[in-house]
């Protein structure tokens, strides 16, 4: 008996010394001095913890993990977590809350382009049931005031994104709640192979420019199983993107799932292979939107929106080749990006505007636009819906309202 016990004890000591039973190195931000009382600036503690995490080669214990524990609220100033890291992959588990300063005066770096940035970190897996709160209301108020005064800029511009990923190939982001960002909530830039799932993103309907997820210059990005309600696009796919699948998203309020805007300031932009599937739009300004600026060049092609549910969406289907944000001088140009091979299939539900479909194309126009099994009725039972189209060609199958520019097929 004694011997068995002793050998068990020895085995345990030996095992813990070798790190068995732990599997990976776990670094808790609290052990690096983070206080988590919602008042103390924990930025430096997070940076120290990141340095330890990123410097760990993970050779013996698997990918190292940074823990942001439950039950605490960490206040962070604008901060950038830089790679490359020594380990092939790194994990960040967010269980607690992370908050931004609550007033503009408290932001220490008003030049920052994002609040929390990850740059050049490969195979980053950020997950957990925690919350990121950008505390954007002060920024929104100032932006609205500045717009009303027609002022060109406010003294300190809001960071364009709360949580930003730049050159993070193999990124996974899941489970978190993101609320009230000063502008956009999540940015994916120059990333290849991204999986975003089970997020909850929320900001008020009237908060300015609070996009849910913005993707630019990225390929093989999958966004799925998430609920997004904001004051701007739920998801926006920008220039340089290809192979983007967006599936099982509940959007609303917001401006829909958009491709663009593209071609701003005469720019050359391309977007292809964007597939939006099984998404619902409730009380949104738009649902399936493609927007290009006059004067731009490049193309948007091979886009599909299918199995879409609409509940009182204002402009469910829209291609706008005359996009202009109304703030800058809008160009009067007949050239624009070429829009082609866009398929809309299985749309059901209601539109607030009687103009349920708007294909407002210019220049070379929009070609091979396909509508298949579309039934959009008015949210007001006494009214009917109609479609507007200009410089558009393609085919429609069982589509209501009828789109005059498209040749009717299937009979
Ligand atoms: C969409 O949701 C369904 C039902 O929850 C699930 O079976 C399917 O895997 C999801 N698809 C994607 C791509 O997330
Ligand atoms: C992306 O969506 C398209 C169209 O629905 C589909 O053919 C393709 O297999 C999807 N890709 C992945 C990796 O799921
Ligand atoms: C579509 O997405 C919803 C969630 O938005 C999900 O409940 C449903 O099961 C999905 N359906 C399919 C066929 O994936
Ligand atoms: C744009 O240009 C066209 C043709 O050059 C002209 O007819 C139209 O009035 C112009 N519109 C504006 C708003 O300047
Ligand atoms: C379109 O949807 C409305 C409302 O759900 C329904 O009454 C109508 O029968 C549908 N039309 C077709 C052709 O399916």
Summarize the structure.
The chain is mostly beta strands and 411 residues long.
Overview of this protein structure:
It is a single chain. This protein is mainly beta and 411 residues long. The chain has one domain: 3 Solenoid (Pectate Lyase C-like). Helix content is 10%, strand content 48%. The chain is built from three helices and 31 strands. The strands form two sheets. It has a 20-stranded parallel sheet that branches. It has an eleven-stranded parallel sheet with strand order 5-8-11-14-17-19-21-23-25-27-29. Mean pLDDT is 91; it is low at 1-21. Bound molecules: 2-acetamido-2-deoxy-beta-D-glucopyranose (5 copies). Belongs to the glycosyl hydrolase 28 family.
Shape category: elongated
> CATH architecture, please?
3 Solenoid
Classify the helix fraction into a percent range.
Answer: 10-25%
What is the helix tally?
3
**Strand portion, in percent?**
over 45%
- What ions, cofactors and ligands are bound? 2-acetamido-2-deoxy-beta-D-glucopyranose
Topology:
Layout (H helix, E strand, L loop, with lengths): L1 H17 L7 E3 L8 E5 L1 H13 L9 E4 L4 E3 L3 E4 L7 E5 L2 E3 L14 E6 L4 E4 L3 E3 L3 H12 L12 E6 L5 E3 L2 E3 L4 E6 L2 E6 L2 E3 L10 E4 L2 E11 L5 E3 L3 E11 L5 E6 L5 E15 L3 E7 L4 E17 L1 E6 L17 E14 L3 E6 L5 E13 L7 E5 L1 E9 L6 E3 L2
Parallel strand pairs: 1-3, 2-4, 3-6, 4-7, 5-8, 6-9, 7-10, 8-11, 9-12, 10-13, 11-14, 12-15, 13-16, 14-17, 15-18, 16-18, 17-19, 18-20, 19-21, 20-22, 21-23, 22-24, 23-25, 24-26, 25-27, 26-28, 27-29, 28-30, 30-31
The site of one 2-acetamido-2-deoxy-beta-D-glucopyranose (NAG) has 3 residues, from strand 22.
